[in-house]
Design brief:
The chain has 216 residues and is an alpha/beta fold. The protein contains 8 helices and 8 strands; from the N terminus they run E-H-E-E-H-E-H-E-H-E-H-E-H-E-H-H. The radius of gyration is 16 Å and the shape is globular.
């Protein structure tokens, strides 16, 4: 069954700490978005500030950066459960994936809307997770491009083992459709972060997933 994962996207370290602590009271995983201001139009907190406590929810680190290798020392120190890099960076990701795995960190590859999965088959073969990015880089909100779900069977055909993630515009209008499309991890940013009660928003999204397969 698909899982809702709250996403943190901020350039404020104190807000990051408050959100991670809060989300850890009701979620098992949290995705932290790191933007370098080069690959993305905006910049978030630096990965060196992506603090993580042992009793917090597992960290999925989504690195929206142009040069992945320069961030590896910080990532290995933080040791997230999963680290995702974009296929569209200017580096070969295979050595980075190998380093992550050697250090007990799962490797993920993210693809932008214009990227056809067949072009990154070597990455899919080695990655544990593929994140379909269907929103706006470095920003909450925006409309989910639901046409991107057409990539899922292609990805699964190339890499049957892989976990499928979705990032971009997920909310109550579409999470059940995403689950039906075989998305495993639905990352939710603004629909939780901007809610007056983030836990209630998370619970409502999760409850909607439990209606999977029910005709209403």
């Amino acid at each position: 069954m698909a899982q809702i994962v709250p996403t943190i996207l901020t350039n404020d370290k104190n807000l990051y700490l408050r959100q991670y602590g809060l989300y850890s009271t009701f979620a098992k995983r949290v995705q932290v978005d790191i933007c370098d201001g080069i690959f993305t139009p905006t910049q978030t907190i630096d990965v060196s500030n992506a603090y993580h406590q042992a009793d917090w929810a597992a960290m999925d680190l989504h690195m929206m950066v142009m040069s992945p290798s320069q961030f590896l020392p910080f990532i290995l120190k933080i040791k997230p459960s999963l680290c995702i890099f974009h296929a569209e960076t200017n580096e070969n990701l295979l050595p980075t994936f190998a380093t992550l795995k050697q250090n007990g960190i799962k490797a993920g590859v993210a693809i932008l809307k214009q990227t056809f999965p067949g072009r990154i088959e070597p990455y899919l073969k080695e990655a544990d997770h593929c994140l379909i990015f269907a929103g706006r880089l470095g920003a909450y909100g925006g409309e989910a491009d639901m046409m991107q779900v057409e990539k899922i069977p292609i990805i699964k055909d190339l890499a049957p083992h892989i976990e499928i993630g979705w990032d971009g515009g997920a909310n109550l209008k579409n999470v059940r459709a995403l689950a039906r499309a075989d998305v495993d991890i639905i990352n939710v940013g603004g629909a939780i972060a901007n809610a007056s009660d983030p836990k209630a928003a998370f619970d409502e999204l999760t409850a909607d997933l439990e209606k999977f397969g029910v005709v209403i």
